[in-house]
Amino acid sequence: MASFKIEGDRRLKGEIIPQGAKNEALQILCAVLLTKEPVTIHNIPNIRDVNQLIDLLGDLGVQQTRVGESSIQFVASDVNLEHLESDSFRQKGSALRGSVMLLGPMLARFRKGRIPRPGGDKIGRRRMDTHFIGFEKLGAKFSYAKDDDGFYRVDATNLKGTYILLDEASVTGTANVLMAAVMAEGTTTIYNAACEPYLQQLCQMLNRMGAKIGGVGSNLLTVEGVETLHGTEHTMLPDMIEIGSFIGLAAMTQSEITIKNCQIPMLGIIPDVFKRLGIQMEFRNDDIFIPAQERYRIETFLDGSTMTVADAPWPGFTPDLLSIVLITAVQAEGTVLIHQKMFESRLFFVDKLIEMGAQIVLCDPHRAMVVGLNRATQLRGIRMTSPDIRAGVALLIAAMSAKGVSIIDNIEQIDRGYQNIDTRLNAIGAEIVRL
């Protein structure tokens, strides 16, 4: 188990380029299975989860040719479906939650699929009902292993378009059902669809491949099934979660940072939420400039009551940035209530922040009240463990702002979502050593 050793209390200065979007990559890479023709993907992040998925595709027989530092051409002309029966596929697939999105393309093109129970972050119950119910409404039939071998088996011989009302606006659920529907017979209507920029990107890519998807960017998608799809090129968005993380990092460490090539129109309300924490920023074409700030003040609601930051489906605030908002508020002036509605275990990392000197009250598994220190005292370095990707980066930001040395163990979790984060931050003045 690897660790980071962080020398805190250092101000950073310089430019940083966000990686390609992790959550988009997991959808886009699975979509290459929908065609036998070449598909070239650009701006692929070099992170553990994405590399594991690329490895899975390779095991299935998808040919891969690297055509640039972050670009790969995929050709899924000779997919080995027998590999789905192997122990290797079960072990690798179960270690990666994103592997479930292989199922939609497999059902669409091959009319059958097999998928192990997926892994991922330990942030509470993350049910798969939205995916499976959507497939069943399209005509797929599931059989669950009686011998507890960890596999779901699916027969999609008669995949037909239908009306689907998703029980929740799940991003991965919408993407998976959408990919199955693009080659189903007839018309599929998906209501209560997620409409995040990542879904918009997937829809646009599929349409370039020959799919017929209407309502892109809304929560009502209409899909006319086609018989075959062809190859395309696709460039992924910059990772909005990284961009938000860098904004919070700049504020907490009183640093001057320019975040390059942000695709600002696709960030939604993310910049506005950080502005409500008092963080100054300037949009310079497509870059975000964060000046060094000695102090920043959290706004209140118009009636003077404590501001609440809560997650919600797009265009609401993404749950992946709530941990960053929480740590950023630790050194602000004022109070904010963080309400994590979607996952019941994502706030439990605050005990380490409290040990570092933060003033946080964990109200229940979903809510935490942060009373800003306003720089009156400085966090102190400690040893801690990263429980998941987003909490891990929040702890990293805390350590970089703290006095003294901190050790973060289990940084494999951070590496799952952030590309060479230590190298990139060290380049602008951080002092992070990988142990």
Indicate the topology.
Blueprint lengths: L2 E5 L5 E4 L5 H10 L7 E4 L5 H12 L3 E6 L2 E5 L11 H8 L8 H8 L1 E5 L12 H9 L3 E4 L6 E5 L7 E3 L5 H11 L5 E5 L5 H12 L3 E3 L5 E5 L7 E4 L4 H13 L3 E4 L10 H7 L5 E3 L2 E4 L16 E4 L11 H8 L5 E5 L10 H7 L3 E5 L2 E5 L11 E3 L3 H13 L3 E5 L2 H4 L5 H6 L5 E3 L1
Parallel strand pairs: 2-14, 3-13, 9-10, 17-18, 21-22
Antiparallel strand pairs: 1-22, 1-23, 3-5, 4-5, 6-8, 7-8, 10-12, 11-12, 14-16, 15-16, 18-20, 19-20
Helix pairs in contact: 1-2, 1-7, 4-6, 5-6, 6-7, 8-10, 8-12, 10-12
Range of strand content = 15-25%
**Gyration radius over CA:** 22 Å
> What is the approximate shape?
globular
Question: What is the CATH third-level topology name of the largest domain?
Answer: UDP-n-acetylglucosamine1-carboxyvinyl-transferase, Chain
Explain what this protein looks like in three dimensions:
The chain has 435 residues and is α+β, with helices and mostly antiparallel strands. It has a 4-stranded mixed beta sheet with strand order 21-22-1-23. The chain has a 4-stranded mixed beta sheet with strand order 2-14-16-15, covered by helices on one side. It has helices at 22-31, 48-59, 87-94, 103-110, 129-137, 171-181, 197-208, 240-252, 270-276, 322-329, 350-356, 389-401, 412-415, 421-426; strands at 3-7, 13-16, 39-42, 63-68, 71-75, 112-116, 141-144, 151-155, 163-165, 187-191, 212-214, 220-224, 232-235, 256-259, 282-284, 287-290, 307-310, 335-339, 360-364, 367-371, 383-385, 405-409, 432-434. The protein has 2 domains: 3-19 and 238-434, UDP-n-acetylglucosamine1-carboxyvinyl-transferase, Chain, CATH 3.65.10.10; 22-235, UDP-n-acetylglucosamine1-carboxyvinyl-transferase, Chain (Alpha-beta prism). Residues 119-126 have low confidence and may be disordered. Strand 7 and strand 8 form a beta hairpin.
